[in-house]
Amino acid sequence: MYSKEFLEQLYRSMIRIRLCEESLVEPILRGEVKCPVHLYSGQEAIAAGVCAALDEKDYIFGTHRSHGHYLAKGGGMRELVAEVFCKEAGCSKGRGGSMHIIDPAKGVMGSVPIVGGTISLALGAALASKIRKEKRVTVSFFGDGATGEGVLYESLNFASLKRLPIIFACENNFYSTHLPIRECRPENDIIKIGKPFCIQSYKVNGNNVLKVYEAASKAVEFCRKGEGPILIEFTTYRLRGHVGPDDNIQGTHADIRPQEEIERWKKKDPIKNLERVLINNRISKKEDLRKIKQEVEQEVEAAHVFARMSSNPNPEELAKYVFRE
Amino acid sequence: MPLGTRKLSYSLAINEALHQLMLNDESVFIIGQGVKSPWYVGNTCKGLLEEFGPERIIDTPVSENAMTGAAIGAALVGMKPIVVHPRMDFMMYGLDSIINQAANWRYMFGGRSSVPVVIWGIINRGGEQAAQHSQALQALFTHIPGLKVVMPSTPHDAKGLMIAAVRDCNPVIFIDDRWLYSIEEEVPEEIYEVPIGRGIIRKHGEQVTVVATSFMVHEALKASASLQKEGIDVEVLDLRSFKPMDTELIFSSVKKTGRLVIADAAWKTCGLAAEIGALVFETIFEYLKAPVKRVTLPDIPAPASRILEEVYYPTAKNIVQAVRSVIGTKISVKIKEVGT
């Protein structure tokens, strides 16, 4: 029911995230990248599927783990990698690092590491759209850890009260940094938090990009009709550590999650899932996918070259950007 | 043709600013608890709902954290929101979005996004309202890079600073004392700005500078009138804006008088008075003829009992005592000659 072109676009979107994320592993281990990097590997289907359902003018707000959201929404890869290297040519001019990425022209309105920190900001962006009577939709991405923050419930209530065009997109990867969800919540079914606020809520397999896209498209349609907000819980798993390549606590180089759990989820890799669909249904040839991958490899390589060639911020400009004149 | 002036109360001067701002710019809206109710916001929001409707005058559930964040979020997609906290104490729930988000936003994104929001906190002290309805937290916000902080003391400035705050491209913390709401003076009818970052001399004098904030300006003027009878000539400087601060005006006044009293009805430790004192010591120490004196609240939460309130809040009397003491004392350390 989807065109080959569209499905390969989804594939490309996920591959761009995966290869870009994985390209950062070595520079992190070598100490070339110092800022905290929270890799998105394993969760690509959510960013790719949700952003495929959005228009360029729609807004997204992110978290500490937002490289995927930024890339899927159209943010430039060169500027992202340069920002991770804290260079002047980075998307935040080297003032933000990996945890603060932005591309307002593409609707990437900002990401921050304060857990739950952008939920109310996304709420305000949706409120602005309602006041201006635009058909614009805002997506607030947050993790299962943010369900411990009170501001989420205030925001769900107000969004529902004012019927705001906002999608609360919870990526449940079952760990709040190091702490398993069962130690954070008496109830693992995050979807249930929508009910007391009369919010339509769906639970979706976040490793199946087509299911993600379907749910997001439905949610976007409701929001554009003035029937928002919508809450979607995407179940997923990160293939890397909380921060850095393989550590849950920076510097320990040890993942505290059970090995068999990690192995089980590796089999559910969202990219392999889509590859199977494309090949088994004879939509794409292996060669087509290989070609996409090669193109993306070149793009990633070029982004690293760009980042390395870029200059560092000028110490004389330390005070720049505090206030807008 | 310029419009005239007529007398307006402080709260109605704010009300006029809000009407004019909303009429002139469709991106301005007001959000906060009690904007429909005079019990919360006095008559500052009178007639707004009728004129601009519930889409732009948004009374909210008790959710200060999300509402402050929502105003900030709307600002960074191009609106010019005013979020009001009718009791500043409740604004503490919104500190994440004010300090972590709004204040840092422009810097941490390398100037690619800015936050033209006004966060309006009303200090509702006195009346036996006790510790959680009385706090004056201007120093807390002045401490944070990326925030501008203003505190007008007169109806004219309340209108002009509200307009300047809304037109500013940065987050501005607008703080007012409910105690000032009934003060009246001539206020121009047209829309005008009082520039953020500029103080004003309310009374010229030669012997002692009193830098005052908010209602302490009025106490300082009373003190000055009574000291004049003793032959002490006081200069009263209304700071109006704490960040950016008009340090040039403070320095030029203190260079002239050589004596400084700072009157800020907020806590003493790490407060504005401490900051102003430090700036003067650091920059123009050689001009001082006497130690700097602070008139502030004691480092104690606000009490309920009116008997205790009377000793808690500083008045003109405390300023008179402070001025007398700096006139009577001299700096005993040896100071190098100016210009050597």
How would you sum up this structure in a few lines?
The complex is a heterodimer of chains A (325) and B (340). Chain A is an alpha/beta fold and 325 residues long.
Explain what you see.
The complex is a heterodimer of chains A (325) and B (340). Chain A is α/β, with parallel strands linked by helices and 325 residues long. In chain A, 41% of the residues lie in helices and 11% in strands. Chain A has a domain at 37-73 and 95-284: Thiamin diphosphate (ThDP)-binding fold, Pyr/PP domains (Rossmann fold), CATH 3.40.50. In chain A, the strands form two sheets. In chain A, strands 2-1-3-4-8-7 form a six-stranded parallel β-sheet, sandwiched between helices. Chain B has two domains: 5-188, Rossmann fold; 200-328, Rossmann fold (3-Layer(aba) Sandwich), CATH 3.40.50.920. Chain B has twelve helices and 14 strands. In chain B, the strands form three sheets. Chain B has a seven-stranded mixed β-sheet, sandwiched between helices. In chain B, strands 9-11-10-13-14 form a five-stranded mixed β-sheet, with helices on both faces. Chain B starts with a strand and ends in a 12-residue tail after the last helix. Classes of the chains: A alpha/beta (325), B alpha/beta (340). Chain A binds chain B through residues 59, 61, 90-96, 100, 102, 104, 109-110, 112, 114, 117-132, 150-151, 154-155, 157-158, 161, 320-325, and chain B through 29, 31, 55-56, 58, 60-61, 63, 65-79, 81, 96-97, 100-101, 105-114, 145-146, 148, 169-170.
